[in-house]
Amino acid sequence: MKLFAGIDVGSAATKAVLLDEQLQVLGRGLTASAGDFAAAASLAFEQALAQAGRKRADVAVVVATGYGRENVAFAAFQRTEIDCHARGAFHHFPRAIVVVDIGGQDNKIIQLDDRGHRVSFTMNRKCAAGTGAFLEELALRLKIPLSKLSELASQSQDPSVKLGSYCTVFAMTEILSQLRAGVKPQDLVRAALESVARRVLETRVISGEVVATGGVVAHNPLLQEILARVLDTTVHLPPDPQHTGALGAALAAAQAR
Ligand code: ADP
Questions:
Q1: 149 plus 216 within the same structural domain
Q2: Whole-Å CA distances, 254 to 115, 121, 249
Q3: How far is the CA of 1 from the centre of ligand 1 (A)?
Q4: Of the residues 67, 82, 106, 135, which should be mutated to test ligand 1's pocket, given the most ligand atoms within 8 Å of the CB?
Q5: Edge-to-edge strand order for the sheet containing 59-65?
Q6: pLDDT > 70 in the chain, percent
Q7: Does 194 share its domain with 248?
Q8: Given this model, what pLDDT does residue 149 score?
Q9: Are both 106 and 199 inside the same structural domain?
Q10: What digits encode the pLDDT tens for the residues 21-68?
Q11: Does 57 lie in the same domain as 129?
Q12: Does the beta carbon of 219 sit less than 6 angstroms from any atom of ligand 1?
């Protein structure tokens, strides 16, 4: 049986998805991109193959996407992140949707019609405060493991705590001074997640059902309800949100068979 692979080489993390001919996921890979995109792509691919118990020779087509997609020498071709996130999200929610992808260094808003065709697209790369990098910095400053942010934020009981600053540097200064003034870390982390959601809203006005993808929503489950409240709409998460782009690339590989 032929297999198809998608590799999403993101600025922060590299993801791989392996599909069979029925488009079932057989394996996944995930590793830090760490500046060496070629090595990260190979490692994520090997992880997915190992999970599936298969070999490189079993894979008929590999498609690369993401910021570092040009570095995947073993890919047959590349597709943009926009194309792949749209495909991956539409695969799980085949109707008119707005895909909101919050990654390590940017956020993207892709509006799709009921056939999965792109109606519009906006990307915000200028404002780091609406991305995963902001949360990474926050975890570092608060000396909290990144993976614990969402859990901590869910203990917040004071919704009046807000962050007024727009840029990461000012937001971080504001957080530290609020901490010194006695504001609880859980309230500040919840406010920081809310600020990420507000940056999405500032990127553009959103109307319609949202499908949220990317590492930030994957690792911060609380963000689903925060996004729904801030965007005032229904927000769905696909299975494995961080792998949506890699899934889309694997679907493009299967289509090319
Ligand atoms: P990109 O495609 O831009 O590389 P991703 O969509 O993979 O980005 O998301 C990366 C972001 O996901 C990181 O910046 C971080 O905020 C978050 N993240 C990744 N791994 C974890 C983790 N183990 N715990 C909490 N957050 C994480």
A1: yes
A2: 18, 25, 9
A3: 33
A4: 135
A5: 25-32, 13-19, 3-9, 59-65, 77-78
A6: 99
A7: no
A8: 96
A9: yes
A10: 999 999 999 999 998 999 999 999 999 999 999 999 999 999 999 999
A11: no
A12: yes
C-alpha 256 – ligand 1 centre gap (Å): 29
Name which residue sits closest to atom 18 of ligand 1, judged by CA.
215
The CA 10 to ligand 1 mean position distance, Å, reads: 9
Q: What is the pLDDT of residues 172-224, one digit of tens each?
A: 888 889 999 999 999 999 999 999 998 888 777 788 999 999 999 999 999 99
Contact between 34 and 91 under an 8 Å Cβ cutoff? The reply is no
Q: Considering the entire predicted model, what is its pTM?
A: 0.95
What integer best gives the mean pLDDT of the chain? 94
Residue 125 pLDDT class (50, 70, 90 cuts): confident
Question: Is 104 close to ligand 1, i.e. is its CB under 6 Å away?
Answer: yes
CA 241 to ligand 1 centroid distance, Å: 11
33 CA: nearest ligand 1 atom: 4
Res. 167: pLDDT tops 90: no
44 within domain boundaries? yes
Any alpha helices (H) in 164-243, and if so which ranges? 168-180, 185-203, 215-219, 222-231
- Coil, strand, or helix at residue 21? coil
Concatenate the DSSP letters of all residues of 29-67 into one string.
EEEE-TT-HHHHHHHHHHHHHHHHT--GGGEEEEEEEST
Domain that holds residue 144: 95-237
Number of domains into which the chain is organized: 2
Nearest CA to ligand 1 atom 1: 10
**Beta carbon of 135 within 6 Å of any ligand 1 atom:** yes
- What per-residue confidence (pLDDT) applies to 129? 75
Task: Check residue 124 and give its pLDDT.
Answer: 81
